[in-house]
TrEMBL record:
Transmembrane residue ranges: 6-22, 43-63, 83-101
Phylogenetic placement of the source organism: Bacteria, Pseudomonadati, Bacteroidota, Chitinophagia, Chitinophagales
One cellular-component annotation, GO: membrane
Species assigned in the record: Chitinophaga agrisoli
Keywords for the protein's UniProt record, in alphabetical order: Membrane, Transmembrane, Transmembrane helix
Subcellular location: Membrane
Protein name in the entry: Sterol desaturase family protein
Length: 299
């Protein structure tokens, strides 16, 4: 099991490198900077910190207690299936669920509050897909991984499916000008998902698929015009801070109003001020020491 985690992590990191290179070479939206708006929030808070703690919560405090209570995994309902069959089965069934739940989120005022964070990114790239509300992740990943464990699947299915999810999620959000042709009718990619993140009314109820675009074409929600969107994100002002974003889903508050409070102002500017201080320290270290006389060769 340790080996598979090592391999999946290596593949994931390699995928990031490849996607970043392709984004620079073949950009969907030209001029998008690597350190785009919200990059550090998405990387540090959503990708690293949130993912770490939610993994513990979902597996240790939701799925395992359910299994200890009902002993469902002991039934080994899919244990005799070949590994590739198990992976494919959970990929397709979960992707179909995600399509309908995602579609429901766009039609429900309550569920939209758990999803709007994902659409708040105004510059969409390989990392943009990591921005998802805590409640959304708990629901989707519990429904994703609970059946794998409770049906007695091969333990390798979890890291393999997690890798596929992560790679596919980065790919469909990547800023790469992909031309899939007829493959886009079956396999989802940036062509349709970039449009899904666009701030256009006509696409708010379209392109809900994650891995398999066939769901959108089959259920009449596909949208793929011959042009590219020019504006991404939400049609209203959305908070930039991780914690305020989550509060915003419950109570509509303004960061500008919060900045009037001294304590919030200090917190809000803490990271930028630390980065500026580190930058000044680095510049000081790189400066030549004016007090040190140059060494000259004696005659």
């Amino acid at each position: 099991m340790d080996n598979i985690v090592y391999y999946t992590t290596s593949i994931l990191l390699l995928t990031v490198v490849v996607l970043v290179i392709l984004e620079r070479k073949f950009p969907y939206t030209k001029g998008l900077p690597f350190f785009r708006k919200g990059f550090w929030i998405d990387l540090v808070w959503y990708t690293i910190i949130q993912s770490y703690f939610l993994k513990i919560l979902i597996f240790d405090y939701i799925i395992q207690p359910v299994d200890r209570t009902w002993h469902l995994s002991s039934l080994q309902l899919v244990a005799n299936w070949p590994l590739w069959t198990q992976v494919l089965f959970f990929l397709v069934t979960h992707d179909l669920y995600i399509y309908w739940f995602h579609r429901w989120q766009h039609h429900s005022k309550i569920l939209w509050r758990t999803h709007e964070a994902h659409h708040s990114v105004t510059e969409v790239d390989w990392l943009a897909g990591s921005r998802s509300h805590v409640v959304e992740i708990i629901i989707n990943q519990t429904i994703e991984f609970a059946p794998i464990i409770l049906l007695g699947a091969n333990p390798l299915v979890v890291p393999i499916k997690a890798l596929i999810d992560a790679v596919w999620g980065m790919y469909i959000h990547s800023n790469i000008n992909v031309k899939s042709g007829k493959l886009q009718y079956f396999i989802n990619g940036p062509e349709m998902h970039q449009w899904h993140h666009a701030d256009y009314q006509e696409v708010f109820y379209a392109n809900f698929s994650t891995k398999f675009a066939v769901w959108d074409w089959l259920f009449g929600t596909a949208y793929l015009p011959d042009k590219k969107p020019e504006v991404f994100g939400l049609p209203y002002v959305y908070p930039k801070d991780y914690f305020v974003q989550h509060v915003f889903s419950v109570k509509r508050i303004s960061e500008d109003d919060l900045l009037r409070y001294k304590w919030f102002n200090k917190y809000y500017h803490l990271r930028p001020n630390i980065m500026k201080w580190l930058g000044r320290q680095q510049q000081e270290l790189l400066k030549p020491n004016a007090n040190v006389e140059p060494v000259t060769q004696g005659k």
